[in-house]
Structure formats: C-alpha cells, structure tokens
User: Which sequence fits this backbone?
C-alpha cells in the first residue's frame, strides 16, 4: 500500500482552472443544466464522490459544476483516444484498467484521499449507455474502508445519446445533477455475511444512495428504498 503523498502536477492545476469554466460554459450553451444540492458538498476534508455513469459527458459535467476540482478515476482507454486523451492530460486524473484489480490505480486513489484530496468514481465501473443503474463493483468498498472518508452521492439524468444528439443540433436538452448528503459506510450492514457478501452489500448500499437521487427509470437494479436512510 502506497504511503507516498499525492501531488497534482502544476500543469494540471493550471489546466483545470482553464478547462473547468470552459466546460461549464459549453454545457450552459448546449444544454439547460439544472444543479441541485451543492450545499451538501463538504466545505473541507477529503471525501469520495460517487455518481451514475451513462455517457462520456458525465464526468466533465459533474466536475464542471462542483465547487471543488476532484481527482477523477477513469478508464485507461480514455488516455489513448483522440481528443479525449488531450482533455484527460490537461485535467489529469487517475487511469484504471477495467476488468482487473488495478492496484496501482487503487494505491493512487488512497494516496490522493490521504493527501487531503477528494476523488470522483463511478461505482458501476463504466458507462451504461442507457438509463438504469447496474450492479456496483466492490472496489469502492475497499477504498472507503481503507480511508474512512464520507461518501458524497450524485445522481445525473439527461445524458442519454438521444439528448446528446439534441444538444449537438442546438435543441438544448435538460441535464440534471442532484447532490445528496454525505454519509458514512457502516462497519457492518447485516451480521453473519461472508466477506464477499458483505462487500457487495456495502457496494449496493452506496448505489442505493445514488438511486435515491434518480427518477425510477434511472434506478435500474437499485429501484428500492435506501437501507437505513432517513
């Protein structure tokens, strides 16, 4: 496990100061963004930002309207795609190999959080392309258990392919972002579970908080009440 302090390169810090307002303006021109719950974003300290992931515009949309500039965990493929790789190199972030346990990426996430930064992760492990949450990957639980930071849930709607096509044609579709209240992951959800069942249960608990911020058609496999909420 890496203990080395995490540092954002100066060119990424400068790049973010330029890129974030440019993206925010672009979203305001091409869509009608509606953002709720920014008062729930912690004023200080590290936390883990989790969100549902439908399309490639979700990470820049969320990052553009948050009052902080988090480290973003993204598929390593992004750093190899034309245009996307340019934006990724300007903003920076943490590339991860999907479909495997990427300990290098995991250690960088832990290092960033322990260095006082916040990290943004899609627990589903990739884009769904259509509304409807999928089962969460359990790596998210390992991060929270190792750092004990609060989890900040965010629900995004309107970033479907259909709406993105409308945006390109100047129709300005609505894209909505709802920020929930931060919460802590319980030590134990259900006594007697195996370690594997416990990890999946905790990952589902995180996803249910995201689902609570979404309309029913976006909730997918998590279309049920949040366990222990209220």
Assistant:
């Amino acid at each position: 496990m890496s203990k080395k302090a995490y540092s954002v390169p100066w060119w990424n810090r400068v790049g973010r100061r330029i890129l974030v307002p440019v993206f925010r303006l672009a979203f305001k021109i091409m869509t009608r963004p509606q953002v709720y719950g920014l008062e729930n974003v912690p004023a200080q300290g590290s936390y883990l930002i989790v969100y549902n992931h439908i399309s490639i515009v979700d990470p820049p949309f969320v990052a553009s309207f948050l009052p902080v500039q988090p480290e973003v965990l993204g598929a390593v493929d992004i750093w190899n795609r034309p245009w996307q790789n340019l934006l990724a190199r300007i903003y920076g972030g943490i590339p991860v190999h999907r479909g495997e346990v990427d300990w290098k990426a995991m250690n960088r996430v832990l290092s960033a959080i322990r260095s006082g930064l916040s990290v943004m992760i899609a627990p589903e492990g990739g884009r769904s392309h259509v509304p409807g949450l999928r089962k969460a990957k359990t790596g998210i639980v390992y991060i929270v258990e190792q750092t004990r930071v609060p989890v900040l849930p965010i629900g995004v709607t309107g970033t479907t392919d259909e709406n993105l096509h409308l945006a390109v044609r100047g129709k300005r579709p609505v894209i909505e972002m709802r920020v929930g209240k931060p919460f802590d992951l319980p030590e134990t959800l259900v006594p007697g579970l195996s370690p594997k069942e416990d990890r999946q249960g905790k990952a589902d608990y995180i996803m249910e908080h995201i689902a609570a911020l979404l309309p029913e058609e976006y909730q997918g496999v998590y279309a049920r009440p949040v366990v222990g909420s209220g």
